[in-house]
Amino acid sequence: MENNESELLHERLKELSCLYDIAKITLDASRSFDDVIGEIVQRIPRAWQFEADAVCHIQIRTVWYKSSEEPKEHVFQEQLIRIEGQGIGRLRIFYPSPKYTEADFLEEEYRLLEKLALDLSLFIERQEIKSRELRYLESLRHHDRLKVLGEITGGIAHELNTPLGSILGFSQLIMDDSRDEATLSDAQKIMNAAMHAREVVKKLMYFSCELPQRLEFISFNQLIKDTLVLIGPSLESKKIQLETRLSAEPVSIQ
Questions:
Q1: Which pLDDT score is estimated for 4?
Q2: By the 8 A CB rule, do 159 and 186 touch?
Q3: In the predicted structure, residue 254 carries a pLDDT above the cut 60
Q4: Count of CB atoms within 10 A of residue 40's CB?
Q5: Spatial contact of 55 and 45, defined as CB atoms under 8 Å apart
Q6: 78 HSE (CA, 13 A, CB side)
Q7: Beta carbons of 132 and 140 less than 8 angstroms apart
């Protein structure tokens, strides 16, 4: 009789020790979710009567965590893991058969399984709430960064517009007053480059929401030609020869 009471007390101590250890594991905020569940699944079998033969599996949605593979022939007990009444996984303990039968699972072990499934549910729910909060905070930070970037971009665009206006004005004066072909050609290149820069500034202002966005159709061929004029000197300095074959038909893009 005393031996039987001693064994029962030993089993209760194992169960309490298991619950205490798992509580400590789940409170370690420095570890990843997978590491925590991985350690829990290794710890649980030691709370069962025949711990050397017990195998634990934890399923959380589509992922399984295993202390080892289940025996080919086996019996098992199972408890669902629920969050807000919805089953999101299960907790299983296996014994190999025919060495063991379902009768070898103690009544106290069924109650322990229920308690462990509840503790896992609470831990998983806390982790998912924390994950949602982190995603929300990151979204807010991203929004704030975009807002600041938009303000900076708007300021840069305004600063650039003044010198670009001067460049365009003086280039036009050169073209109006000069009759030298080379000078006219260079002045036209300056104007084209300044106009291109002004378009870039306009896009920056669209980005900063200082101008209403507007879609329009433009000539794709002309866009290519204007771009080639701008990058032509860079290509020549690097001794790069460029061949283009543009469509004979007009191509419009929005």
A1: 67
A2: no
A3: yes
A4: 23
A5: yes
A6: 11
A7: no
CB 150 within 8 A of CB 208: yes
Q: Left (φ > 0), alpha (ψ -120 to 50) or beta: where does 188 sit?
A: alpha
* Structural tokens at position 135: 């995603």
- Per-residue pLDDT tens for 233-243? 777 878 888 88
Report CA 196 to chain centroid distance, whole Å. 36
Edge-to-edge, what's the strand order for the sheet holding 86-96?
63-66, 55-60, 86-96, 74-83
DSSP, residue by residue, 112-163: HHHHHHHHHHHHHHHHHHHHHHHHHHHHHHHHHHHHHHHHHHHHHHHHHHHH
Judged on CB neighbours under 10 Å (0-12, 13-18, 19+), 143 is: exposed
- Token pair, residue 168, equals 């365009």
C-alpha dihedral, 93 to 98 to 103 to 107, nearest 10°: -20
- CA distances in angstroms from 34 to 119, 138, 148, listed in the order given: 16, 22, 37
Strand partners of residue 169: none
Query: What is the spatial distance between Cα 33 and Cα 170, in angstroms, rounded to a whole number?
Result: 65
Local confidence band at 149 (pLDDT 50, 70, 90 cut-offs): confident
Rounded-to-integer distance, Cα 235 and Cα 223, Å: 18
Q: Pairing mode, if any, of strands 218-219 and 252-253?
A: antiparallel
The average confidence (pLDDT) of the chain is 86
Nearest to residue 57, comparing CAs of 72, 74, 38?
A: 38
